[in-house]
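User: Sequence recovery, please. Input:
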């Protein structure tokens, strides 16, 4: 049997059961389509009920609100009229006030004081029923006394201060209900009707002017009065047989009916099934055609593979062609690959050689980068050693001179000033290293606010000029107003680092240019100089850590990590930093670009004044003898009464006997940690109220948080300037003595 015959039998075995099954499925689909349409009717009925309930619930809320009016309670009907008008502003609702006889005192559809006709018997009876019931009710369809049109209302009884009883009537035209019936994506042949508790038509989306105010046919009227909810089938007043979906409102008691012509439902279901049947038939024909096409393709592919196999005994390489059958293509490729094996092997060898050459080039480049980074690191360490030795040499010399004795007061003062200056310089170097480490590793949290960039530049320049850093250079300023979102402290650090960089690499007498302008939604700050410039190689590495050019004026100091810090801070602010230089000896320009923001006029909070100085009793717990003695002398000089302890246990005992106003506690103690000391003092009733200040070499933000969590009231990182220490002590002692 040929391949074509096998394919034909396979197709028949698949298609016959498929046809039988499809007939069953189409019948089920017909039923499902009809039920889906009926469910859509039921959902539309529920949506219509929800729309009616929402409108009438709002009217009920308005009526209940008006019941509480003080003007109404005091019989000030004209003022109450104004409140009712305000309550209905923007909505198609109105308010009427009826007395016990059913006579309207006013109706907001007319000006106050307008005469309104006497009520009919139905209106009087309705008012009596509302007053007798004593609670708000939803009305059926009413013909209004003041308008002569059909309305629905919410009627709420109320008794005013003098004992008279009235009914607050919150009403709307029945046309309003027509307008809120669902209309979007609703076929024009679908009928939606709303009936009151008596079965009278309140609203209708088709010919409302003809049917509103009248009951439906007898069969449908029975359905409405019986409160039936579900699907029915009957003739409408228009003479059309329809399916009807019924839903009753639990709030108003009204019924909503959705009617769809029976013929339309059946036609829609049949149409959907017909489309499915047509699709199935098309698919069936396509399957038969595809079977014929693929059988021909398979036979053709087998013939081509057989011809290729016959070429092998002649040592010819079989040609490659797309046989459009994957298995036949694999067979043909296997035959073709045998003839091309040597060529493929040579291509593979060449590829390996090229990959090895590329890998060698990459390795050489990586080695150069590593060597460059190692050189930069060595240069940084050498420069750091130089920066540290200078202040240490001055400090050592000063200490030696003080130890010699016989130094007069003037020289002692000068030596002390030098020691203070060099100590501050050492502290600045250590802080700069730690701060740079945090910034470069993304371990800082910004506190962004709206900042005037022009004012920030001017403030930074003023600080440089105050310490004489710019006196040997010419400054050229072009500053335009610009507002950005930034952390003020970090922004000042960025500007100061760029200015330091320009001064460091520009010889005396050189020119420093600072330009600030805005454009394209950005604030652009450019700091240029006429200094030594940069080579293209150095410019490509300018923002790397440990990389710097040859410093012109080493007296201006710095660790050579300023540009890396500025670049990291710029990225944290969503800004960019760019470097440019025409070449060596031609100066450099560094450009910061910030997104602009509009200036917000928010008042700045005023800083609290520092607490007044207090000569208090201070306990110092410090294991380092020199630090402990210097701190004792410093605090005693400031007028404090000082007690010292060299370890944690001695400090706890001293706290109990000395009863200090504040305790300064080191974290690293020989017998226990400062955190344990704080815990012990807090647990002891005699020492629990003593303010605790951690004075430690651990200065990270996490260290501060850990100290506060352990019970400390403050945290200072060594070395602590004397004024800062005294101010912190005074503040904590003052706060502790405030009345609770």
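Assistant: Recovered sequence (740 residues):
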């Amino acid at each position: 049997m040929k391949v074509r015959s096998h394919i034909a039998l396979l197709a028949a075995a698949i298609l016959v059961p498929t046809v039988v099954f499809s007939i069953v499925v189409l019948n089920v689909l017909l039923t499902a389509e009809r039920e889906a349409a009926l469910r859509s009717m039921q959902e539309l009925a529920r949506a219509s009920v929800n729309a009616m309930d929402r409108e009438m619930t709002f009217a009920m809320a308005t009526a209940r609100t008006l019941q509480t009016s003080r003007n109404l309670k005091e019989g000030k009907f004209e003022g109450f009229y104004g409140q009712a008008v305000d309550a209905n502003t923007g909505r198609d609702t109105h308010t009427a006030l009826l007395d016990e006889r059913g006579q309207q005192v006013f109706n907001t559809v007319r000006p106050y004081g307008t005469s309104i006709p006497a009520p009919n018997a139905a209106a009087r009876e309705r008012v009596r029923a509302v007053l007798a019931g004593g609670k708000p009710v939803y009305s059926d369809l009413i013909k209004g006394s003041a308008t002569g049109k059909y309305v629905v209302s919410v009627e709420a009884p109320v008794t005013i201060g003098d004992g008279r009883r009235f009914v607050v009537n919150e009403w709307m035209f029945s046309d309003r209900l027509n307008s809120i019936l669902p209309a979007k994506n609703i076929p024009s042949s679908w009928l939606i009707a709303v009936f009151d508790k008596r079965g009278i038509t309140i609203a209708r989306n088709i010919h409302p002017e003809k049917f509103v105010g009248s009951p439906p046919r007898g069969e449908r009227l029975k359905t409405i009065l019986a409160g039936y909810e579900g699907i029915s089938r009957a003739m409408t007043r228009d003479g059309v047989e329809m399916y009807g979906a019924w839903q009753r409102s639990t709030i108003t008691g009204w019924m909503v009916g959705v009617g769809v012509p029976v013929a339309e439902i059946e036609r829609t279901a049949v149409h959907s099934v017909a489309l499915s049947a047509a699709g199935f038939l098309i698919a069936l024909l396509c399957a038969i055609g595809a079977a014929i096409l693929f059988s021909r393709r398979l036979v053709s592919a087998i013939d081509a593979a057989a011809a290729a196999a016959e070429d092998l005994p002649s040592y010819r390489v079989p040609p490659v062609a797309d046989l459009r059958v994957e298995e036949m293509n694999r067979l043909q490729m296997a035959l073709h690959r045998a003839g091309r094996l040597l060529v493929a092997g040579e291509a593979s060898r060449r590829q390996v050689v090229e990959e090895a050459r590329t890998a060698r080039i990459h390795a050489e480049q990586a080695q150069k980068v590593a060597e460059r980074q190692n050189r930069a690191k060595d240069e940084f360490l050498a420069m750091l050693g130089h920066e540290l030795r200078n202040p240490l040499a001055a400090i050592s010399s000063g200490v030696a001179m003080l130890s010699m004795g016989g130094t007069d007061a003037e020289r002692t003062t000068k030596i002390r000033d030098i020691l203070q200056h060099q100590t501050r310089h050492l502290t600045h170097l250590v802080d700069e290293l730690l701060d740079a480490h945090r910034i470069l590793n993304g371990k800082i949290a910004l506190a962004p606010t709206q900042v005037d960039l022009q004012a920030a530049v001017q403030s930074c320049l003023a600080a440089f000029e105050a310490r004489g850093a710019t006196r040997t250079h010419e400054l050229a300023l072009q500053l335009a107003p610009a507002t950005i979102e930034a952390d003020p402290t970090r922004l000042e650090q960025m500007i100061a680092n760029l200015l330091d960089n320009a001064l460091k690499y520009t010889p005396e007498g050189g020119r420093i240019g600072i330009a600030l302008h805005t454009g394209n939604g950005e604030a652009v700050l450019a700091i240029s100089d006429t200094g030594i410039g940069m080579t293209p190689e150095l410019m490509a590495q300018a923002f790397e850590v440990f990389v710097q050019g040859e410093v012109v004026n080493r007296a201006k100091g710095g660790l050579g990590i300023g540009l890396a810090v500025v670049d990291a801070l710029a990225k944290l602010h969503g800004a960019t930093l760019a470097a440019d230089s025409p070449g060596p000896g031609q100066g450099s320009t560094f450009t910061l670009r910030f997104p602009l923001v509009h200036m917000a006029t928010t008042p700045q909070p005023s800083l609290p004044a520092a607490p007044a100085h207090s000569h208090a009793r201070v306990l110092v717990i410090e294991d380092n003898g020199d630090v402990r003695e210097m701190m004792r002398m410093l605090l005693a000089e400031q007028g404090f009464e000082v007690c010292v302890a060299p370890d944690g246990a001695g400090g706890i005992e001293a706290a109990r006997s000395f009863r200090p106003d504040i305790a300064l506690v080191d974290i690293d103690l020989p017998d226990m940690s400062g955190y344990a000391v704080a815990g012990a003092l807090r647990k002891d009733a005699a020492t629990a109220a003593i303010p605790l200040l951690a004075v430690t070499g651990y200065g990270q933000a996490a260290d501060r948080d850990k100290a506060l969590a352990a019970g400390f009231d403050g945290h200072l990182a060594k070395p602590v300037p004397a004024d800062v220490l005294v101010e912190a002590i005074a503040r904590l002692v003052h706060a502790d003595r405030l009345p609770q």
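Confidence is low (pLDDT under 50) at residues 552-557, 601-614.
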